[in-house]
Design brief:
The chain is mainly beta and about 170 residues long. The chain has one domain: Lipocalin (Beta Barrel). The chain is built from 2 helices and 9 strands; from the N terminus they run αββββββββαβ. The structure holds 2-acetamido-2-deoxy-beta-D-glucopyranose. The site of 2-acetamido-2-deoxy-beta-D-glucopyranose has 4 residues, from loops.
């Protein structure tokens, strides 16, 4: 009986997949996240988009405005979109943000070199499926080996692929 119940629970949890609990950086200083971040590498279940970068504009309420851009090599132009991440809980200092039904957590950052982000929510291509993506963002398009060592300590284990940050034209947001 117990096994049957476990089986039913397992099947149910797959159908109504929800995001796992995750520890985010505590005492986040949202204002120090301001500025340009280049996405350096991403968990291999996500596409390694070209010239993917984001300009962060912190709000006074602790929210983070994101202006994101990727380079379209067919049209030779940037595709840009914006979203606003609000704190999951306004009273918490944890770096747990959400954009509607999607979670965006900062797992760790030193503000001046790297940030490890984690995303969980419905897939953009199929809203019935939940996906988790972890990525490393950098203040520079390439990482010095000493920063990469620090950043890798904060990165959950798994397979990552490099974003292509080569030959990216300058882009004004
Ligand atoms: C990239 O540009 C091509 C040509 O203009 C266009 O057909 C395509 O939809 C663009 N890709 C995206 C993801 O917008």
């Amino acid at each position: 009986m117990a096994l049957l119940l476990l089986g039913v629970l397992l099947i149910t949890s797959q159908v109504f997949a929800t995001c796992p609990e995750k520890v985010a950086k505590s005492n986040i200083d949202s204002t120090r996240m301001a500025g340009v971040w280049h996405n350096y590498k991403v968990s291999s279940n996500a596409p390694p988009l070209k010239c993917f970068h984001v300009v962060v504009t912190p709000g006074e309420d602790g929210s983070l405005g994101l202006s994101q851009a990727i380079y379209n090599t067919t049209s030779n132009s940037y595709i840009q979109w914006s979203n606003t991440l609000t704190k999951e809980s306004p009273t918490s200092s944890d770096a747990k943000y959400a954009d509607g039904s999607r979670n965006f957590y900062i797992l760790d950052t030193d503000y001046s070199n790297f940030a490890v982000w984690w995303y969980c929510g419905p897939k953009y291509s199929n809203k019935d499926e939940t996906t988790e993506v972890t990525w490393l963002a950098s203040r520079t398009k390439s990482l010095s080996s000493s920063v990469e060592v620090e950043a890798n300590k904060a990165l959950p284990s798994g397979e990552y692929v490099l974003y292509d940050q080569s030959g990216c034209p300058e882009h004004d947001h």
